[in-house]
Design brief:
heterodimer, A: Phage tail protein beta-alpha-beta fold, Phage tail protein beta-alpha-beta fold, 5-stranded mixed beta sheet, 17 strands, about 40% helix, disordered C terminus, B: Phage tail protein beta-alpha-beta fold, Ribosomal Protein S8, Chain: A, domain 1, 4-stranded antiparallel beta sheet, 14 helices, about 45% helix, disordered N terminus
């Protein structure tokens, strides 16, 4: 008996000793990245200085990138976020080595993205959705199927292709479609993005990515700021600084956009006056200077191309519109083989492509050309809040009704 | 009693103030050959707006601008200036910015709207089922044209009816029986109007055509007499329109010539302003400067021939006429296999083309063909053009047996 009790006590003692102890709250380090048109080298020296570290350029000591300008304004952010923003604006990879207390820099190697882990995603529900869509609305190939001529992916393979396009994962380290699973070996950031996209695509009614929700919150903040500034010959850089300097919204200019800007000479006709808020002025500047706004790395991103890989997206569920269109096309059928007659249906018109094409044309008419990708009855629109909200308007004009399923979550 | 009067005056005071503040602001424009860019700056200043050029070079706006018009609303001023400049000019909804775009591009601030065209599509399907011409079988190796739905045919028709040489491309999308357009509020109003007229029993005239009629009445009523010698063409046109209390805008290509070219136009004896304009047009045609006259925003528009700015139209319901013609084709059928016999019907005769083709031919014969565009959508026929061309079309249709609804 005593042995039994002693054994139990020993076991309990063992378990208690291995129970996780609540971590002592560690004061999180933050830095201020205020680099509006700063040389990358001096920004990195400042960043390292704020951490009490040293900047080690290593092999890039003589690289021209260090002499190029970056534009970042983000106060009170973690060193990791700061490194991401500086990286994105400088077109390099900046990392913080806490062990050696250094800030490091290296070139982006697109051939070999950092792969830190493997993760698999079960896709049964999405595959079922796609298969059902194909059975009802899938386009029939002209002249019948030609087995060796057509790429006919499974629902999982089609999903893998859709994920790759929506997130612009690139050709390296592709995902694998295994039965009804997708397997990826990539960096944690990419794996999290894939996971989020699959979750949003599978949610009833679709939904928004977390970065899009952050984007929304930041734009609301900007919309509350008013000031009076500018006039003839105002520098773009000066206006950007005025827009963000007093606003708690982290922002950076993407590297490709930095190459398009000439911050020393580019001027703008956009002026600020108190009747307009800073968000309206930012959109006006974006139209004038031909850039787009979305959210990445937890900061607003000013960039020039929708196809550079965004974390801002919204997935729309258009199943009900498809059902309505199926009826519409049935009503549009005529009787005989007559001139101006129509004998097709939603399938022959392209299924969900009818909606995607209209969405694309109308967004283009409004000055947007975002990345659109359908997967069965789900359509992903990649871009910032202005683009996504405009897409919602276009879809509503087609008869789509928003199901506010997971909107608001995570806010 | 005095107390009530005082009270009444106190009550009326804020009403008067409100009424004044609600009255639409109007401006007067007088651009007599200055450069388009200078005029754009002046117009923006008049409107209290900022001028913004979108992919339009300041240097490309150096041609002369001729636009004279009093008491015009800001939006109409922008539209008239668009004609004078040859670019797409729009004032944003807040009135804060005057934008100049290249023709064809989508202006900022355009909104998307979806129009349910199920009624019109349904009518078109009925028409095709009743009168649609038989499909022509494709010739060997000929590419088969994909079939188009009623809504797609309607989108094509609207594109022709609403075409604006300086405006944004409407580029509609067809989704089932909905048409989607991304346009400014003014352009959406035009889409709504044409859809309403196409649905309306008996069709009808667009507001632009009605406005043109009003202007022509003014020109007919006004008397013009003057001894004009060696005066710029632009000034003569302006003087005639002024006699009728009307403004004038010259298209950029005409302005380029008309501010420089001088003419004599002696007319001591009073004639109507409309006659004076026609006479002047004839004189200019003899001088190798043929012009077209039209009306926009209650203002006379003059441009080089072939560059008319007319955007009015009339919608005719030819459903009854088609039925009558169908019956007449039936009556004319003879026993089959006879020499000089006829065994066809409306379908084989071409459906609504039975009306459309002779209408176009006859308009050509009376030299109105170049001023009118005829578009058929099932049992609806649209004639786009000025009053003269539309009235000529009405007369021809009457002769074909078409009757105004209610007659």
């Amino acid at each position: 008996m005593v042995r039994v009790i002693a054994g139990v006590l020993a076991t309990l003692l063992f378990l208690v000793s291995y129970m996780p102890v609540a971590a002592e709250p560690k004061a999180e380090r933050t830095v201020n990245c205020v680099y509006p048109g700063e040389l990358l080298a001096s920004a990195l020296n400042d960043f390292a200085g704020q951490l009490g570290y040293r900047f080690e350029p290593g092999d890039m000591a003589d690289a021209y990138e260090l002499e190029a300008m970056i534009w970042v304004h983000a106060k009170g952010v973690s060193p990791d976020v700061a490194a991401q923003l500086i990286s994105a604006s400088g077109g390099v990879i900046v990392s913080v080595d806490d062990t050696n207390r250094t800030v490091l820099i290296r070139e982006i190697d697109e051939e070999a993205p950092a792969a830190s882990g493997v993760r698999s995603f079960k896709t049964d529900a999405l595959c079922k959705l796609y298969t059902e869509y194909q059975k009802r609305y899938g386009m029939v190939a002209e002249g019948g199927l030609q087995p060796d001529m057509m790429y006919r992916p499974t629902a999982t393979e089609e999903l893998r292709d859709a994920v790759e396009e929506i997130l612009q994962l690139g050709d390296s380290a592709p995902g694998s479609a295994v039965g009804m699973r997708l397997v990826y070996t990539r960096g944690t950031d990419d794996l999290d993005r894939v996971g989020e996209l699959l979750q949003v695509m599978g949610a009833a009614g679709g939904g928004e990515s977390s970065q899009l929700q952050v984007d929304r919150a930041y734009r609301e903040k900007l919309a509350k700021v008013h000031s009076s500034f500018g006039g003839e010959g105002t520098l773009v850089s000066a206006l950007l600084w005025q827009l963000f300097k007093d606003c708690d919204v982290p922002v950076y200019v993407d590297h490709a956009q930095m190459e398009s800007f000439d911050l020393e000479y580019d001027t703008t006709d956009v002026t600020l006056d108190n009747s307009h808020n800073h968000y309206e002025a930012l959109l006006e500047l974006a139209r004038e200077q031909d850039f787009f706004v979305d959210c990445k790395h937890g900061a607003l991103r000013l960039h020039e191309d929708f196809f550079v890989g965004s974390s801002s997206f919204r997935v729309f569920d258009v199943a009900e519109v498809l059902a309505q269109l199926e009826k519409d096309y049935a009503d549009l059928k005529t009787e005989d083989q007559v001139f101006e007659g129509f004998h097709g249906d939603l399938r022959s018109e392209g299924g969900v492509q009818v909606i995607v094409d209209a969405l694309s044309v109308q967004l283009e008419n409004a000055g947007f050309s975002p990345l659109l990708r359908a997967y069965g009855p789900r359509i992903a629109v990649v871009g910032g809040m202005d683009v996504v909200d405009r897409a919602a308007e276009v879809l509503e004009a087609m008869g789509w009704k928003p199901i506010r399923a997971n909107e608001g979550e995570g806010k | 009693m005095k107390y009530f009067a005082a009270l009444a005056s106190l009550l009326l005071l804020p009403l008067t103030v409100c009424a004044q503040s609600d009255a639409p602001k109007t401006i007067s424009l007088g651009f007599y050959g200055e450069s388009v860019f200078e005029c754009a700056e002046t117009l923006a200043e008049e409107l209290g707006a900022k001028l913004q050029l979108h992919e339009v070079d300041e240097d490309s706006l150096d041609m002369p601008c001729w636009l004279v018009r009093e008491d015009v609303t800001p939006q109409s001023a922008a539209e008239l200036f668009s004609i004078a400049a040859g670019y797409q000019v729009s004032l944003d909804d807040t009135g804060h910015t005057l934008h100049i775009y290249q023709p064809g591009v989508a202006p900022g601030g355009a909104r998307v709207k979806g129009y349910d065209v199920s009624v019109l599509s349904g009518r078109f399907v009925e028409y095709v089922n009743s009168f649609g011409a038989p499909a022509v079988p494709p010739k060997p190796n000929e590419q088969i044209e994909p079939e188009r739905t009623a809504a797609e045919h309607l989108a094509d028709a609207l594109d022709e009816i609403l075409y604006e040489p300086r405006g944004a491309d409407s580029d509609p999308s067809v989704v089932g029986d909905r048409l989607l357009f991304t346009l400014s509020e003014r352009d959406h109003a035009r889409v709504r109007e044409v859809l309403d007229l196409l649905v309306a029993e008996g069709g009808g005239e667009s507001s632009a055509l009605k406005a043109e009629r009003a202007v022509i009445e003014k020109l007919k009523a006004a008397k013009f007499s003057a001894e004009i010698e060696t005066t710029p063409v632009a000034s003569v046109l302006t003087a005639i329109c002024k006699a009728a209390g009307l403004g004038i805008v010259l298209g950029p290509d005409l302005a380029e010539v008309a501010v420089e070219q001088h003419i004599d136009f002696p007319h001591k004896k009073a004639i109507s302003a409309l006659e004076a304009l026609h006479l002047l047009a004839a004189v200019l045609a003899d001088d190798d400067l043929p012009i077209d006259l039209s009306v926009r925003e209650g203002t006379v528009v003059a441009d080089l021939a072939g560059r008319s700015s007319t955007n009015g139209y009339r919608v005719y319901d030819i459903g009854e006429l088609l039925k009558k013609l169908d019956a007449s084709f039936q009556r004319q059928r003879t026993a089959s296999g006879k020499d000089e016999g006829f065994s066809g019907d409306m379908r084989r005769a071409g459906g609504n083309r039975v009306v459309l083709d002779p209408l176009e031919e006859l308009l050509d014969e009376i030299h109105q063909g170049e001023h009118a565009v005829c578009i058929c959508f099932g049992t609806r026929l649209v004639v786009r053009g000025g009053c003269e061309a539309v009235d000529a079309a009405t007369e021809i249709l009457n002769e074909m047996g078409w009757e105004e609804s209610g007659n």
